[in-house]
Design brief:
mainly alpha; about 100 residues
Length: about 100
C-alpha cells in the first residue's frame, strides 16, 4: 500500500483543525473565568452570562462555576496538546520518509 503523502496531509489538517477548536474553547473558558464575579453594568441589567449558557436562566447572578470552567480548561488543554503531538509525530514520519528516500 503506497502512501502518496495525502495521509500525512490529512493527519496534519485534522490535527490543525483540532488545535483551532481547542484554542477557541480555551479563549472562551478564560473569558468565563475572568468574568465569574462580574455584575451587571447597568442597574437592573443582567450580569455576565457563561458563553453558550441557556439564555432563559431565572437568576440574575453570574452562573460561572470556576471549578467547572477549570475542569473544561484542563480538558481543552489536553486535547490541544494531543493535537500538537499528532502534528509533531506526522512531521517526524515525513522526515523519516524523506531520509529513507534519500538513502
Amino acid at each position: 500500500m503506497a502512501n502518496d503523502g495525502s495521509d500525512f496531509a490529512r493527519s496534519m489538517s485534522i490535527a490543525t483543525s483540532g488545535l483551532r477548536a481547542q484554542a477557541g474553547r480555551m479563549r472562551v473558558l478564560s473569558e468565563n473565568i475572568a468574568n465569574a464575579d462580574s455584575t451587571a453594568q447597568t442597574a437592573g441589567g443582567d450580569p455576565y452570562r457563561r458563553k453558550a449558557a441557556d439564555a432563559t436562566g431565572n437568576v440574575k447572578y453570574p452562573n460561572v462555576n470556576a471549578l467547572v470552567e477549570m475542569t473544561d480548561m484542563r480538558e481543552a488543554q489536553r486535547s490541544y496538546e494531543a493535537n500538537l503531538n499528532i502534528i509533531s509525530a506526522t512531521r517526524r514520519m515525513i522526515q523519516r520518509t524523506l531520509d529513507i528516500l534519500k538513502a
